Amino acid sequence: MTAPMATRLLRADDAAIGEAVRCLTSGGLAAFPTETVYGLGADATDGRAVARLYAAKGRPAFNPLIAHVADAEAARALARFDADAARLAGTFWPGALTLVLPKAAGCAVAELATAGLDTIAVRIPNHGVAQKLLARFGKPIVAPSANRSGHVSPTLAAHVLADLGGRIDLIIDGGPTRVGVESTIVACLGEPVLLRPGGVPREAIERALGKPLAEPAAGTHDAPLAPGMLASHYAPRTPLRLDAQNVEAGEVLLAFGPLPAKGAENAAGVLNLSARGDLLEAAANLFSHLRALDGAGAKCIAVMPVPRDNLGEAINDRLQRAAAPC
Ligand code: TXA
Ligand code: MG
Prior knowledge:
Layout: E1 8-11, H1 14-25, E2 30-32, E3 39-43, H2 47-57, E4 66-68, H3 72-76, H4 83-92, E5 97-102, E6 119-123, H5 128-137, E7 141-142, H6 157-164, E8 170-173, E9 184-187, E10 193-196, H7 202-209, E11 240-241, E12 251-255, E13 270-272, H8 279-294, E14 300-303, H9 312-323
Parallel strand pairs: 1-8, 2-8, 4-6, 5-9, 11-14, 12-13, 12-14
Antiparallel strand pairs: 2-3, 3-7, 4-7, 5-6, 9-10
Magnesium ion binds next to loops.
């Protein structure tokens, strides 16, 4: 066991970005806000830093990381873009879309970060702090969500501190993240395939492509399609009961929309994802409400139904994973 390190929490300003650049340059771990969720950054080209990152999260090393870059030129140094990939990058970057692409020859990202695959996940985040950090660092930064492996993703600096305090060097606090669910992941290795629903709705991607996204074929043991998408990946400790129409004794309620579930007045606690039924607002609130209700010590979290279109696909995906037994 190594002794816990002091984790510094820095307000997002130029000095903090300078500190984070120094930290990454010396092989350290710095958490920073993106528009989706907070990421835990390490120098993507430094195998030892990447190894420290896996250890800090308790993440299995067969689960590859997303390389974050500042601009399209930096992305092209890492990966090969076919016509579909170029169209998606042109339409949605910077933004909440990650592309899984064939690795470019001479790709500088450490083998460990791509778990030995010949593909790489790449994203240009749309957040001022993340963009400045990437531009000033000048190299790709691998950044998984800044939570302990298997926990709910962080949408506040306080979530990062609760999960990783004492295990990482610093956290840049840029306030709550705007989108609130992780990026959508699309593989362009042939016909484009949706690997993970996320902050860019499927409908918008299909519109940009002018064709439907293909469904993923079942991954094989040697080449899992999105290795991180294990069934119970986003699990709170408290069990979830999905599509709840009522609230039972000892339950807390995760509500959606203006009409309360039957018995809501007797719930030990109620948080509404969006009282006006807005999916954007619901996505932004999802993980912080799940964390708060998980902390209430209830027997179960009853979850009202959420529509499945647009951002609802990602919200329902995360709720289903949170409800899956470990
Ligand atoms: O919004 C996001 O994507 C956030 C922010 C910080 O950018 N990051 C994030 O990273 O959610 P992470 O590591 O928690 O999730 C990345 C997912 C994992 O499920 C991983 O298995 C998958 O991307 N992935 C990474 N590289 C891959 C590859 N080459 N092929 C297939 N899946 C890959
Ligand atoms: Mg994650």
